[in-house]
């Protein structure tokens, strides 16, 4: 299978996560009014989904190594779709949160399968380029998600957003069954007992280089999720913008991410992904320093929006470079390594997001300061990231498996 076709199908799959996160953001005010709750409380449904999206990957990853990518991915789509229908029928915040947790389990099984499939097929710089191409394709989803949500609100109410998500998951299952799985290069099966698969996490946890990259992923994603969680408050409440203007500004983040993703691909032919990762993480941190400064000085909307777009946009280069490096040491345990990365990323980011929802209040400064704190931690880890030439010496991982 060509890299473009593989990236297209996997990009459509991994796009399910951003769609489930972003599509209902413009509906936050309507959901709050419908349930009779404060606007900030709706963010807890997002945090519940994200936290589950992380924890459930710890189960889905080893199972995909043991039973195959097809079973786990298609099972995840079925769970996601069924829970989406139930979310659409929720009558309270608690009910909605419970079904979002179940939906997160399905989303986790899908999310952990994509990087594992990539690692099954390619490695090294090729993996970074493929992750970049997947990212470029999937950027369409978060860019279009708030607009899709606004369109659904114009036609009816927020419930239809989750019905559409459920239908997309069913469509995706049919496409993958016909166009992806029959064309994949077979990988050697992992025949160890399920109980042994759990102990494989020790191999990843004791690999200090991989854990450094996982730390970078967690902190950079946390900075982005803080913005996603509070984006409706920032633009629709703090700056009193309409849902359509909010959707346009949100899409601008994705457009800049796609631009930097495009720039990153040819740079991989001249520089190692580790070097590019270090530079992009540091530039993101500098942009967030500027954002905190502008907010502290009560700066104008255009300056705040420009710095948010810039800082979030650097994810377009950070994610593919970091994923390729984090998974490169585990050619036969791609599902387990991807699960630990995804679980760490979504669970810790979900906790940080939930805490910010509880304590941020009505002020913008604590939100952007929290984003900067996460980015600064990632920058410290990136400064110590190994050079590409060191990586061969660090390949100790799976000799015992």
Relative strand content: under 5%
CATH level-two architecture: Up-down Bundle
Q: If you consult CATH, what is the topology?
A: Growth Hormone, Chain: A
Number of domains: 1
Largest sheet: none
Task: Report, as a whole number of angstroms, the end-to-end distance.
Answer: 29 Å
Q: Structural class given helices, strands, pairing?
A: mainly alpha
Secondary-structure element series: HHHHHHHHHHHHHHHHHH
**Helix content bin:** over 70%
Beta-strand segment tally: 0
Assembly state (oligomeric): single chain
**Weakly predicted, low-confidence segments:** 388-401
Mean pLDDT: 83
Number of distinct helices: 18
CATH 4th-level superfamily = MFS general substrate transporter like domains
What is the CATH first-level class name?
A: Mainly Alpha
Write up what this structure looks like.
With 401 residues, this protein is mainly α. It has helices at 3-14, 16-22, 28-35, 43-55, 57-67, 69-88, 93-121, 124-138, 140-155, 159-179, 194-205, 208-238, 243-267, 273-296, 301-313, 315-327, 334-359, 365-383. Helix 1 (3-14) crosses helix 8 (124-138), helix 6 (69-88) runs antiparallel to helix 7 and helix 6 (69-88) runs antiparallel to helix 10 (159-179). The protein is globular. Mean pLDDT is 83; it is low at 388-401. Belongs to the major facilitator superfamily. Bcr/CmlA family. Residues 1-387 form the Major facilitator superfamily (MFS) profile domain. GO terms for molecular function: xenobiotic transmembrane transporter activity.
């Amino acid at each position: 299978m060509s890299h473009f076709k593989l990236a297209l199908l996997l990009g459509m799959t991994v796009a399910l996560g951003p769609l489930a996160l972003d599509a209902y953001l413009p509906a936050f005010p309507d959901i709050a009014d419908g349930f009779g709750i404060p606007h900030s409380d709706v963010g807890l449904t997002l945090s519940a989904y994200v936290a589950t999206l992380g924890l459930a990957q710890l189960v889905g990853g080893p199972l995909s190594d043991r039973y195959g990518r097809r079973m786990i991915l298609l099972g995840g789509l079925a769970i996601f779709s069924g829970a989406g229908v139930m979310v659409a029928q929720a009558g309270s915040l608690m009910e909605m949160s419970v079904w979002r947790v179940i939906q997160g389990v399905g989303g986790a099984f899908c999310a952990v399968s994509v990087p594992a499939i990539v690692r099954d097929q390619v490695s090294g710089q090729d993996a970074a380029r493929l992750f970049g191409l997947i990212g470029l394709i999937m950027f369409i989803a978060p860019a279009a998600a708030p607009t899709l949500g606004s369109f659904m609100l114009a036609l009816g109410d927020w419930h239809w957003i989750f019905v559409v998500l459920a239908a997309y998951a069913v469509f995706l299952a049919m496409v993958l069954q016909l166009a992806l799985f029959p064309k994949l290069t077979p990988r050697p099966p992992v025949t160890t007992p399920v109980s042994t698969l759990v102990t494989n996490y020790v191999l990843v946890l004791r690999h200090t280089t991989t854990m450094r990259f996982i730390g970078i992923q967690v902190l950079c994603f946390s900075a982005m999720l803080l913005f996603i969680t509070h984006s409706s408050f920032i633009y629709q409440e703090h700056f009193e913008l309409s849902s359509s203007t909010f959707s346009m500004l949100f899409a601008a983040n994705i457009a800049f991410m796609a631009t930097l993703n495009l720039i990153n691909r040819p740079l991989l032919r001249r520089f190692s992904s580790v070097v590019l990762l270090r530079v992009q993480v540091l530039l993101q941190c500098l942009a967030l320093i500027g954002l905190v400064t502008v907010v502290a000085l009560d700066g104008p909307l255009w300056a705040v929006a420009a710095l948010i777009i810039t800082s979030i946009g650097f994810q377009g280069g950070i994610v593919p470079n970091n994923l390729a490096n984090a998974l490169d040491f585990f050619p036969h345990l791609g599902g387990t390594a991807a699960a630990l990365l995804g679980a760490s990323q979504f669970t810790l980011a979900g906790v940080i997001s939930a805490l910010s929802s509880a304590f941020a209040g009505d002020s913008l400064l604590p939100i952007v300061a929290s984003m900067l704190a996460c980015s600064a931690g990632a920058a410290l880890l990136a400064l110590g990231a190994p050079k590409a030439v060191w990586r061969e010496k660090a390949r100790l991982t799976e000799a015992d498996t």
